[in-house]
């Protein structure tokens, strides 16, 4: 069950099919969907009610199915140990999986769970004949301070024997445990603990090669300790945590191998094999997402169950399977004759059972549509992000791509069609699951299985729209990713970009600040070391950082001429900037006297002519060279230097006027 319980009505429809195919019982792990009372926080918000549990058990009995409850008592206790109330019982405080076997509180907690579940399964005061107490995959063992001094196998055997003895003594039920933790325990330790007289092991292997995981030597060891043994195969929930339809061929091969192993090993045990359980897990553990849902796995269950019932799989089982799954005898696409038993070309059984009308058939058919949609979706994502070179994460981050190529890779119609397919799948899944799962489980499955495609397609559509809307692009190289600095990847600063040709429209509508930057760069304003302007803020900060403690009236004149030149070009933005520059110079002048810091600056100006690359025309350039002159602290002037002579200023003003007129 594990947090996604099928509806009672659906289970009532499934039980007769199981009985028809030869099942004699059901191994049922309630986990957090059991309506615990004395330890109510264990129950999920969508747990069954007491009446639901009674109805499920009554329906199973009416179909001659013996129900064996499975209660985790050692490992796989995430559903309980995740809560603060029982976090102190963890073997590892960081991992809510296994409880500490050295705590008396752990045993008390386990007994409370067993009391409630076994009581619910009892009929007329008689407890169920078998109770499965789990005990598989106890990975956290011997780690807490209380357990470190004890051998791991002793810790394990001590806890298991205590729980098993409690079940036998209090309820008279025979405990069953998973065998995996016993595979490396010595027969002497098991014999000394008395485990063989308390439990019956259930040997589980879901892969095709059973002997690879449980070799003949392990069977010999088990036969020396236990009189009877169980086997466990799988019909779903074994070959991938995120699968939505089981590979029926692999599960069939697993069950066929088990038939062979059981025939070989049965004679070693006094009582032989009790039975073979076909497991079908809802999740790999409490925190995992849902794997194959029961409706999508009914054909796989039917094929494997009928096979272990009959002891073989061949074309003669076709009629019984069609009867159990309500399949039409005409118009079926599955092969006929001996070819029907070959599942290599149809591992999910869609060709054989997609037209059948068993409970949950709508969802089963939907999985075929889902696979086709996922393939198309994966191909698109692979092309967009990896295989094609115009919508990779790099292109998206830098907003740098060819609109034509973007449309080719992720066209509007292609993405929209796929989005519509996914939306149709969501609606169909909702409708097909409404009578099978409770609403929270339906929502969870759709969010896990289908909604990720919705978000990814929406993201691709948005990115494509942004990339296709671009009309101008920057020169290379593009700015490097800042996050690369943590790998020691840095790049040197680039030289200033050369002025580019502008159209008349771009010249009229160009940014005034950009034009100011170009003007300042042309005039080659230089501080104590040369610099060029790349941004308006850089120009202004560089200009004032020099702290022109020189002829301030000349600086005022320079700012004024800059604004006047901008006004003549009919650029109100440049005129405003020039005026602002003038005001800032005045403010600098008024506050400069107290901040000379032992430095004064003298200014020289020089004009020169130089040949242009295009030919004979000449251009004057103005170059302000700031010569820094050290002044001893004792010689620091108490006032600003005297301004230059009037004729010198007039000469410079005339030069600037001529420059502005020429431009």
TrEMBL record:
One of its GO terms (molecular function) is beta-N-acetylhexosaminidase activity. CDD domains: GH20_GcnA-like. The chain crosses the membrane at residues 573-592. Residues 44-186 form the Glycoside hydrolase family 20 catalytic domain. GO terms for biological process: carbohydrate metabolic process. Its EC number is 3.2.1.52. It catalyses: Hydrolysis of terminal non-reducing N-acetyl-D-hexosamine residues in N-acetyl-beta-D-hexosaminides. SUPFAM superfamilies: (Trans)glycosidases. It holds the Pfam family Glyco_hydro_20. The keyword Hydrolase applies. Keywords: Hydrolase, Membrane, Transmembrane, Transmembrane helix. It comes from the Eukaryota. InterPro entries: GH, Glyco_hydro_20_cat, HEXDC-like. Belongs to the glycosyl hydrolase 20 family. This is beta-N-acetylhexosaminidase. It comes from Ladona fulva (Scarce chaser dragonfly).
């Amino acid at each position: 069950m594990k947090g996604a319980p099928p509806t009672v009505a659906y289970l009532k429809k499934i039980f007769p099919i199981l009985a028809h195919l030869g099942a004699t019982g059901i191994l049922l792990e309630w986990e957090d969907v059991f309506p615990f009372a004395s330890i109510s926080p264990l129950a999920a918000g969508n747990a069954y009610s007491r009446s639901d549990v009674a109805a499920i058990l009554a329906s199973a009995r009416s179909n001659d199915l013996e129900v064996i409850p499975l209660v985790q008592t050692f490992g796989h206790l995430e559903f309980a140990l995740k809560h603060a109330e029982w976090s102190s019982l963890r073997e590892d405080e960081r991992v809510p999986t296994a409880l500490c076997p050295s705590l008396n509180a752990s045993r008390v907690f386990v007994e409370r769970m067993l009391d409630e579940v076994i009581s619910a399964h009892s009929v007329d005061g008689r407890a169920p004949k078998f109770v499965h107490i789990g005990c598989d995959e106890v990975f956290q063992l011997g780690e807490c301070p209380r357990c470190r001094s004890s051998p791991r196998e002793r810790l394990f055997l001590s806890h298991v024997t205590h729980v098993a003895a409690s079940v036998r003594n209090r309820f008279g039920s025979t405990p069953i445990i998973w065998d995996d933790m016993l595979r490396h325990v010595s027969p002497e330790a098991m014999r000394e603990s008395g485990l063989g007289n308390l439990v019956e092991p259930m040997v589980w292997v879901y892969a095709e090669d059973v002997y690879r995981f449980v070799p003949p030597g392990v069977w010999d060891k088990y036969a020396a300790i236990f009189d009877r043994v169980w086997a466990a195969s799988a019909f779903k929930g074994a070959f991938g945590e995120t699968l939505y339809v089981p590979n029926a061929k692999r599960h069939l091969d697993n069950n066929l191998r088990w038939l062979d192993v059981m025939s070989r090993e049965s004679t070693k045990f006094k009582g032989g094999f009790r039975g073979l359980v076909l497991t079908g897990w809802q999740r790999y553990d409490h925190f995992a997402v849902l794997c194959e849902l029961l409706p999508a796995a009914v054909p796989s269950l039917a094929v494997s169950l009928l096979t272990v019932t009959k002891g073989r799989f061949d074309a003669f089982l076709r009629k019984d399977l069609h009867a159990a799954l309500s399949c039409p005898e005409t118009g079926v696409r599955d092969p006929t004759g001996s070819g029907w038993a070959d599942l290599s070309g149809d591992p999910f059984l869609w060709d054989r059972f997609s037209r059948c009308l068993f409970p949950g058939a709508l969802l089963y058919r939907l999985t075929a549509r889902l696979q086709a949609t996922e393939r198309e979706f994966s191909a698109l994502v692979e092309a967009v992000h990896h295989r094609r070179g115009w919508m990779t994460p790099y292109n998206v981050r830098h907003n740098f791509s060819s609109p034509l190529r973007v449309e080719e890779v992720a066209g509007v119609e292609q993405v929209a069609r796929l989005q519509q397919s996914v939306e149709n799948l969501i609606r169909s899944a909702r409708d097909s699951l409404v009578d099978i799962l409770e609403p929270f489980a339906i929502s969870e499955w759709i969010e896990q299985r289908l909604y990720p495609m919705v978000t990814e397609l929406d993201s691709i559509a948005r990115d494509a729209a942004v990339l296709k809307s671009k009309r101008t692009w920057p020169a290379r190289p593009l700015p490097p990713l800042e996050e690369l600095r943590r790998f020691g990847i840095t790049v040197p600063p680039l030289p200033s970009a050369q002025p580019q040709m502008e159209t008349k429209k771009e010249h009229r509508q160009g940014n005034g600040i950009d034009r100011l930057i170009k003007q300042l760069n042309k005039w080659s304003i230089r501080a104590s070391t040369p610099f060029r302007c790349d941004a308006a803020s850089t120009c202004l900060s560089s200009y004032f950082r020099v702290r022109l403690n020189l002829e301030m009236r000349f600086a005022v004149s320079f700012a004024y001429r800059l604004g006047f030149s901008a006004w003549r070009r009919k650029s109100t933005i440049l005129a405003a900037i020039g005026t602002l520059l003038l005001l800032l110079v005045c403010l600098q002048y008024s506050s400069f006297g107290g901040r000379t810091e032992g430095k004064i600056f003298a200014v020289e100006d020089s004009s020169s002519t130089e040949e242009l690359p295009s030919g004979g025309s000449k251009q004057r350039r103005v170059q302000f060279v700031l010569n820094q002159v050290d002044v001893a602290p004792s010689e620091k002037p108490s006032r600003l230097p005297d301004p230059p002579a009037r004729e010198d200023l007039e000469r410079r003003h005339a030069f600037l006027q001529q420059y502005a007129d020429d431009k």
